[in-house]
Amino acid sequence: MKVAENLELIEKRIEEACRKSGRNRSEITIVAVTKQVSAERAQEAMRAGLIHLGENRDEGLNEKWEVLGDEPIWHFIGSLQTRKVKNIIEKVDYIHSLDRISLAKEIDKRAGQPINCFVQVNTSGEESKHGLDPQEAMDFIKQLDKFKNIHIIGLMTMAPNSTDEKVIRKCFSDLKELQLKAKELDLEYAPCTELSMGMSNDYGIAIEEGATYIRIGTSLVGAAENELEV
User: Rounded CA gap, 133 and 145, in Å?
Assistant: First the structure.
């Protein structure tokens, strides 16, 4: 299917999730995850009105940058190795995976201006997931006050690949609870007003639990050799 057709279906689901949770559609930003598709498919997404694009590898981001430049708003959504910060820092507007001081230090050193960052928290408890233990999140945020180029706009998590809606919902509601606690710290460098959570299979639940940024890949733009429908 064309991206515009997929987006129409996704928008209906977003509207339904907003209706169920009493939220406004304007509170939610779609990040089109283009990591598995070509630059041409990313361009199609932009023609459909999607200006926020997400990549999870420095190579992929740089390949698409060669074609699209700074026309999209770029999000780095994958685990970021410290040594690769220099490869993406001048191109991205958002980093969704800040989870350690060494990474914050490198971002701060390399960035020419404050970078919008999400602190990644592992609310699922799965060992395969990156991110801070929820109990470490508040102390971690407090430690970031010395980095002038780190602007913590919120928290990010990934739910487990599960069919159990209760398990998924708890991962998201736990992050919302943490976000509210972080916001209460009232830190100028860390307003923590945003929540990055929800992907193709669970963005509806994420919206119901407070997501403001949802990261949608296969059901929106498809995947390499297999452009899936919603």
Answer: 20
Comparing CA positions, the residue from 203, 205, 165 lying closest to residue 20 is: 205
Confidence of residue 224 (pLDDT cuts 50, 70, 90): low
Side chain identity at 114, as an amino acid letter? P
Q: Decide if 215 contacts 196 (C-beta within 8 A).
A: yes
pTM tops 0.90 = yes
Arithmetic mean of pLDDT, 179-196: 98
CB-based contacts of 150, cutoff 8 Å, min separation 6: 98, 104, 107, 108, 114, 115, 117, 144, 189
Q: Is 81 helix (H, G, I), strand (E, B) or coil?
A: coil
Helix 39-47 × helix 3-21 angle, to 10°: 60
3-state secondary structure (DSSP) of residue 4: helix
